[in-house]
Specification:
This protein has 2 domains: 63 residues; 137 residues, endopeptidase domain like (from Nostoc punctiforme) (endopeptidase fold (from Nostoc punctiforme)), CATH 3.90.1720. A 6-stranded antiparallel beta sheet has the order 3-8-4-5-6-7. A two-stranded antiparallel ribbon has the order 1-2. The longest helix is centred in the first third of the chain and has 57 residues. Helix content is 39%, strand content 15%.
Length: 211
Protein backbone atom coordinates (compact mmCIF):
# COMPACT_ATOMS: atom_id res chain seq x y z
CA UNK A 1 0.00 0.00 0.00
CA UNK A 2 2.83 2.28 0.92
CA UNK A 3 4.52 1.42 -2.40
CA UNK A 4 1.43 2.41 -4.39
CA UNK A 5 1.20 5.71 -2.48
CA UNK A 6 4.83 6.43 -3.22
CA UNK A 7 4.28 5.77 -6.92
CA UNK A 8 1.26 8.08 -6.98
CA UNK A 9 3.28 10.76 -5.18
CA UNK A 10 6.13 10.32 -7.64
CA UNK A 11 3.81 10.58 -10.65
CA UNK A 12 2.20 13.66 -9.14
CA UNK A 13 5.58 15.27 -8.58
CA UNK A 14 6.70 14.52 -12.13
CA UNK A 15 3.44 15.95 -13.48
CA UNK A 16 3.94 19.11 -11.45
CA UNK A 17 7.48 19.46 -12.75
CA UNK A 18 6.30 18.96 -16.32
CA UNK A 19 3.50 21.51 -15.91
CA UNK A 20 5.88 23.93 -14.28
CA UNK A 21 8.39 23.46 -17.09
CA UNK A 22 5.70 23.89 -19.69
CA UNK A 23 4.54 27.08 -18.02
CA UNK A 24 8.11 28.39 -17.86
CA UNK A 25 8.65 27.40 -21.50
CA UNK A 26 5.40 29.12 -22.45
CA UNK A 27 6.38 32.24 -20.55
CA UNK A 28 9.86 32.12 -22.07
CA UNK A 29 8.29 31.68 -25.50
CA UNK A 30 6.14 34.74 -24.86
CA UNK A 31 9.23 36.71 -23.80
CA UNK A 32 11.11 35.58 -26.90
CA UNK A 33 8.14 36.50 -29.08
CA UNK A 34 7.83 39.85 -27.31
CA UNK A 35 11.53 40.54 -27.72
CA UNK A 36 11.38 39.48 -31.35
CA UNK A 37 8.44 41.82 -31.85
CA UNK A 38 10.42 44.65 -30.30
CA UNK A 39 13.40 43.83 -32.53
CA UNK A 40 11.17 43.67 -35.62
CA UNK A 41 9.63 47.00 -34.72
CA UNK A 42 13.05 48.52 -34.16
CA UNK A 43 14.28 47.17 -37.50
CA UNK A 44 11.22 48.53 -39.25
CA UNK A 45 11.80 51.89 -37.57
CA UNK A 46 15.45 51.89 -38.61
CA UNK A 47 14.55 50.94 -42.19
CA UNK A 48 11.77 53.53 -42.24
CA UNK A 49 14.10 56.16 -40.86
CA UNK A 50 16.73 55.26 -43.44
CA UNK A 51 14.23 55.35 -46.28
CA UNK A 52 12.80 58.64 -45.05
CA UNK A 53 16.28 60.11 -44.77
CA UNK A 54 17.11 58.97 -48.30
CA UNK A 55 13.82 60.35 -49.55
CA UNK A 56 14.54 63.71 -47.94
CA UNK A 57 18.05 63.72 -49.36
CA UNK A 58 16.84 62.82 -52.84
CA UNK A 59 14.14 65.48 -52.74
CA UNK A 60 16.56 68.27 -51.76
CA UNK A 61 16.67 70.88 -54.53
CA UNK A 62 19.90 70.65 -56.52
CA UNK A 63 20.62 74.29 -55.80
CA UNK A 64 21.00 73.42 -52.11
CA UNK A 65 23.45 70.58 -52.71
CA UNK A 66 27.05 71.82 -52.48
CA UNK A 67 28.73 71.67 -55.84
CA UNK A 68 32.40 72.48 -56.23
CA UNK A 69 32.26 72.19 -60.01
CA UNK A 70 32.28 75.54 -61.68
CA UNK A 71 30.49 75.69 -65.04
CA UNK A 72 32.22 77.66 -67.72
CA UNK A 73 28.90 79.46 -68.29
CA UNK A 74 29.15 81.00 -64.86
CA UNK A 75 32.63 82.42 -65.27
CA UNK A 76 32.90 86.22 -65.26
CA UNK A 77 33.20 88.15 -68.51
CA UNK A 78 31.33 85.60 -70.61
CA UNK A 79 28.51 86.65 -72.94
CA UNK A 80 25.36 84.54 -72.62
CA UNK A 81 23.74 85.94 -75.76
CA UNK A 82 24.44 85.51 -79.46
CA UNK A 83 27.63 87.05 -80.91
CA UNK A 84 25.63 88.00 -84.01
CA UNK A 85 23.14 89.88 -81.82
CA UNK A 86 25.99 91.77 -80.18
CA UNK A 87 27.49 92.74 -83.54
CA UNK A 88 24.08 93.71 -84.91
CA UNK A 89 23.63 96.05 -81.95
CA UNK A 90 27.14 97.48 -82.29
CA UNK A 91 26.70 98.45 -85.96
CA UNK A 92 23.64 100.53 -85.12
CA UNK A 93 26.11 103.13 -83.75
CA UNK A 94 28.09 103.39 -86.97
CA UNK A 95 28.65 107.08 -87.71
CA UNK A 96 28.43 108.24 -84.06
CA UNK A 97 31.31 110.70 -83.55
CA UNK A 98 34.48 109.94 -81.66
CA UNK A 99 34.62 111.84 -78.36
CA UNK A 100 37.43 111.38 -75.89
CA UNK A 101 36.25 110.23 -72.46
CA UNK A 102 32.65 109.91 -73.63
CA UNK A 103 30.24 106.99 -73.56
CA UNK A 104 27.07 108.38 -75.04
CA UNK A 105 25.35 107.48 -78.34
CA UNK A 106 24.47 111.15 -78.89
CA UNK A 107 27.60 112.98 -77.72
CA UNK A 108 29.96 110.24 -78.88
CA UNK A 109 32.27 107.45 -77.74
CA UNK A 110 35.95 106.90 -77.21
CA UNK A 111 37.23 103.43 -78.15
CA UNK A 112 36.79 101.68 -74.78
CA UNK A 113 33.61 103.62 -74.03
CA UNK A 114 32.03 102.24 -77.18
CA UNK A 115 32.95 98.62 -76.44
CA UNK A 116 31.89 98.97 -72.81
CA UNK A 117 28.53 100.46 -73.85
CA UNK A 118 27.80 97.63 -76.30
CA UNK A 119 28.66 94.82 -73.88
CA UNK A 120 26.80 96.49 -71.01
CA UNK A 121 23.65 96.30 -73.16
CA UNK A 122 24.02 92.51 -72.90
CA UNK A 123 24.62 92.69 -69.12
CA UNK A 124 28.32 91.91 -69.42
CA UNK A 125 30.82 93.93 -67.42
CA UNK A 126 33.96 94.77 -69.36
CA UNK A 127 36.54 97.41 -68.44
CA UNK A 128 36.01 101.10 -69.04
CA UNK A 129 39.74 101.68 -69.53
CA UNK A 130 41.42 100.34 -72.66
CA UNK A 131 44.54 98.80 -71.08
CA UNK A 132 42.43 96.53 -68.86
CA UNK A 133 40.98 94.66 -71.85
CA UNK A 134 44.14 92.54 -71.90
CA UNK A 135 42.65 90.60 -68.96
CA UNK A 136 39.16 90.06 -70.39
CA UNK A 137 37.94 86.62 -71.57
CA UNK A 138 40.58 84.32 -73.04
CA UNK A 139 43.15 84.71 -75.80
CA UNK A 140 42.53 83.11 -79.21
CA UNK A 141 44.46 83.08 -82.49
CA UNK A 142 43.51 85.15 -85.52
CA UNK A 143 42.22 82.12 -87.43
CA UNK A 144 39.74 81.41 -84.62
CA UNK A 145 38.44 84.98 -84.41
CA UNK A 146 34.74 85.50 -85.04
CA UNK A 147 31.87 87.94 -84.53
CA UNK A 148 31.80 89.63 -81.13
CA UNK A 149 35.41 88.87 -80.22
CA UNK A 150 37.60 91.69 -78.97
CA UNK A 151 40.59 92.88 -80.99
CA UNK A 152 43.37 94.73 -79.18
CA UNK A 153 45.98 97.12 -80.52
CA UNK A 154 48.99 98.97 -79.17
CA UNK A 155 49.75 102.64 -79.78
CA UNK A 156 51.63 103.66 -82.92
CA UNK A 157 54.94 102.59 -81.39
CA UNK A 158 54.76 98.83 -82.08
CA UNK A 159 57.55 98.11 -79.58
CA UNK A 160 55.12 98.90 -76.74
CA UNK A 161 52.61 96.18 -75.99
CA UNK A 162 50.20 98.08 -73.76
CA UNK A 163 46.64 97.93 -75.10
CA UNK A 164 45.79 101.39 -76.41
CA UNK A 165 42.84 100.64 -78.71
CA UNK A 166 40.03 98.09 -78.73
CA UNK A 167 37.35 97.09 -81.20
CA UNK A 168 34.74 94.37 -81.79
CA UNK A 169 35.25 91.87 -84.63
CA UNK A 170 32.40 91.81 -87.15
CA UNK A 171 33.73 89.25 -89.66
CA UNK A 172 32.98 85.53 -89.68
CA UNK A 173 35.62 82.98 -88.66
CA UNK A 174 38.00 82.19 -91.50
CA UNK A 175 37.38 85.45 -93.39
CA UNK A 176 39.68 88.51 -93.44
CA UNK A 177 39.24 90.28 -90.13
CA UNK A 178 37.09 93.38 -89.95
CA UNK A 179 36.10 95.17 -86.76
CA UNK A 180 33.93 97.99 -85.53
CA UNK A 181 35.49 100.62 -83.30
CA UNK A 182 35.34 104.26 -82.35
CA UNK A 183 38.33 105.65 -84.17
CA UNK A 184 40.25 108.80 -83.32
CA UNK A 185 41.89 108.67 -86.76
CA UNK A 186 40.71 110.20 -90.02
CA UNK A 187 37.09 109.12 -89.70
CA UNK A 188 36.76 110.22 -86.05
CA UNK A 189 33.64 108.15 -85.64
CA UNK A 190 32.33 104.64 -85.01
CA UNK A 191 33.19 102.73 -88.18
CA UNK A 192 33.97 99.27 -89.56
CA UNK A 193 37.58 98.74 -90.61
CA UNK A 194 39.18 95.84 -92.48
CA UNK A 195 42.51 94.70 -91.07
CA UNK A 196 45.35 96.37 -92.95
CA UNK A 197 49.11 96.72 -92.61
CA UNK A 198 48.81 99.62 -90.18
CA UNK A 199 46.59 97.69 -87.75
CA UNK A 200 48.39 94.38 -88.30
CA UNK A 201 51.65 95.91 -87.05
CA UNK A 202 49.89 97.23 -83.95
CA UNK A 203 47.94 94.02 -83.21
CA UNK A 204 48.44 92.74 -79.67
CA UNK A 205 45.88 89.97 -79.66
CA UNK A 206 42.29 88.78 -79.87
CA UNK A 207 40.19 87.74 -76.89
CA UNK A 208 36.84 86.01 -76.78
CA UNK A 209 34.01 86.04 -74.29
CA UNK A 210 31.90 83.55 -76.21
CA UNK A 211 33.95 80.31 -76.34
Amino acid sequence: MKSIFCKILLVSSISSLILSSCERFHNRSNVIEANQSILDTAQRYIVLSKDTSSSIKDSTPHSEIPNNTVSVDTLPNKVQGSPDALVAYAVTFEGVPYAYGKQDPVEGFDNSGFVNYVFKHFSVDVPRYTAEFAKVGRSITEDKAGPGDLILFSISDTSKKTVAHVGIITSETGLPISFIHSSSGKSRQVSITTMNTYYQKRLIGIRTLFR
